[in-house]
Predict the 3D structure of the following.
Amino acid sequence: MDIKRVHSGSPYETRYGFSRAVAVDGRVLVAGTAPVPPEGEPVAATAFDQMKRCTEIAQRAMADLDVGEVTVIRTRMFITDPSDADEI
């Protein structure tokens, strides 16, 4: 079994075995992603901006595994305000 992992620097990686993304025999799984900005930047204000940040994080993890977005077969979003769904 060929396993590759992408690490995010999260403290949960060593404590709980968390990885940003894992590739196993051609299947890539990207962990749940929150809109955490690079250090020193404010959290994105709008739901759309938060979705964009989550997408950037997931895309970076896929690039680190040398796979592209064209291989994505499912996404999920969890929102607190249903009126944001169309914007996202």
